[in-house]
Specification:
Layout: H1 2-13, H2 31-39, E1 57-60, E2 63-66, E3 68-74, E4 79-87, E5 96-101, H3 106-116, E6 120-125, H4 131-144, H5 150-161, E7 167-170, E8 181-187, E9 192-197, E10 202-206, E11 211-215, H6 216-221, H7 239-252, E12 258-270, E13 276-287, E14 300-301, E15 321-327, E16 330-337, E17 340-347, H8 355-370, E18 385-397, E19 404-420, E20 424-434, E21 440-441
Parallel strand pairs: 4-18, 14-20
Antiparallel strand pairs: 1-2, 3-4, 5-17, 5-19, 6-7, 6-8, 8-9, 9-10, 10-16, 11-12, 12-13, 13-15, 15-16, 18-19, 19-20, 20-21
Helix pairs in contact: 4-5
């Protein structure tokens, strides 16, 4: 239940962000190297001899690299294979963008809500809740949480504390005010739909009140969370048809420039009754740009590896997430957190680190981390390995400008391993490396203090 509650918080409630720390964000032991790598422009493209390139090779900024990296990491007690597919979508130009958070306007919410919700009949409104009041409601709801459902507890507390502000209005149109929003609409199909905006950087719209979307991978892990047990989604709709609906929806509401970075069958269900509402597809979207998009939030940060203080980069805020659930009825759920806008392109084509040097950096980092594993081999499984490297991008800090971030080329490394204890645990974790200088990147939001 605890894990399910955490998932519910992250997917639905968008608990308000931790305030920006007063302490200056740590970038790296060598700040100058970080800044210099961002502004170093790649050399003009040269002509590489075709005879030096095999059919399985690919060209990356005047470098010929293979499509797979095969090697092994040897420590005193462990031998871990590297058999990693190398995924590069664009091979020529790698810009660095300076970005900032973009607020979600009432006009945007109005457009999105009208595209998702069926015809409405009436509205229950609780709009003028302050940020502090909502935080208090979250705490009280968490303390009072029972099997009846966390969100129900939240809304009950808000109702009790803010009764004079509520109203039930007959209306055939959606009306979005400014500020924090907590609206419930009765629709012609008999469902109560909700629109929630907990701060200027978050939005959640559901066609059914007190609902959540659980992807198939989590249903496998958390099957007992639903009363009917681990029954997986039964989806009649093809992924291609669902993708078409999702992209058409985004175009209709003016959210262009996004691309699917993950897709999974999912279950849309009531967190109060545990009843299944619909089975369908859950899509995560990233900005398209020139890089292969990766939903970093799908993976755990690899906790096996030793982290030396001061050697990691930290994102200035949580990366943008845009999730859409599509069923045969269309788009039924949308969550949007921390949208960004590009302030400027600071480097049209940044110089990537030589790939051979990068491999050495990654190998050294893995060896250092793996050397901290228990010498008891019962806790190690030989199937542990580095399986994929994807050239994507990640959000990183701008020195002395906490309201801005850089989107920099980043190698996303997927590391599959099994930890053998009382129960065998298998999962894929993520390691990030700055593609400009090879430095490791943490997916933690702020530096550890």
């Amino acid at each position: 239940m605890k894990r399910s509650l955490i998932l519910l918080l992250s997917l639905i409630c968008f608990i308000a962000c931790v305030p920006t720390p007063q302490k200056e964000i740590v970038i790296n032991k060598n700040d100058n190297d970080y800044e210099e790598s961002i502004f170093t422009t790649a050399s003009p493209k040269s002509t590489l001899s075709d005879c030096s390139k095999s059919t399985d090779d690919q060209i990356l900024q005047n470098q010929i690299i293979e499509t797979r990296w095969s090697d092994s990491i040897e420590t005193e007690y462990l031998s871990v294979p590297i058999d990693a597919e190398i995924v590069i979508e664009n091979q020529d130009v790698f810009p660095v963008r300076k970005v900032k958070k973009a607020t979600i306007s009432s006009e945007q919410i109005q457009t999105i809500a009208e595209a998702i919700l069926p015809s409405v009949i009436s509205m229950w409104n609780c709009t003028e809740i302050s940020h502090e009041e909502y935080q208090r409601a979250l705490l009280v709801a968490a303390e009072n949480d029972q099997e009846s459902g966390f969100l129900q507890s939240i809304n009950t507390h808000i109702s009790d504390q803010n009764a004079p502000r509520e109203s039930f209005i007959e209306t055939n149109r959606i009306s979005i005010p400014d500020g924090i929003i907590n609206q419930t609409y009765l629709c012609e199909n008999g469902n109560y739909a909700t629109i929630d905006k907990y701060n200027e950087y978050s939005l959640l719209i559901c066609t059914v009140q007190h609902s959540n979307v659980l992807p198939e991978s989590l249903l496998k892990d958390e099957g007992t969370y639903l009363d009917e047990g681990p029954v997986y989604p039964v989806v009649k709709q093809s992924q291609g048809d669902a993708e078409s609906i999702a992209y058409s929806f985004l175009e209709t509401v003016g959210l262009t420039g996004y691309r699917i970075c993950s897709a999974e069958k999912a279950r849309y269900y009531s967190v109060v009754s545990r009843d299944v509402i619909e089975d369908g597809w859950l899509f995560s979207f990233c900005h398209s740009f020139e890089y292969y998009p990766v939903d970093i939030g799908l993976y755990d940060s690899c906790g096996l590896f030793h982290m030396e203080e001061g050697t990691f980069y930290y994102a200035p805020w949580q990366a943008e997430t845009l999730n859409i659930f599509v069923s045969e009825n269309g788009v039924e759920y949308l969550s949007w957190l921390n949208p960004i806008e590009v302030a400027e392109i600071v480097n049209d084509n940044a110089q990537l680190m030589d790939f051979r040097k990068l491999q050495n950096e990654i190998s050294h980092f893995l060896k250092l981390g793996l050397s901290y594993l228990s010498i008891d081999k019962r806790h190690y499984d030989p199937n542990t390995s580095l399986t994929k490297m994807i050239l994507s991008y990640s959000l990183q800090p701008v020195k002395d400008e906490p309201d801005y971030g850089y989107l920099i080329p980043t190698w996303v490394c997927l590391f599959d391993y099994r930890f053998i204890g009382n129960d065998s645990v298998e999962f894929t974790s993520i390691l990030l490396f700055n593609a400009l200088n090879g430095a490791p990147i943490t997916i933690s939001r702020y530096p550890h203090t």
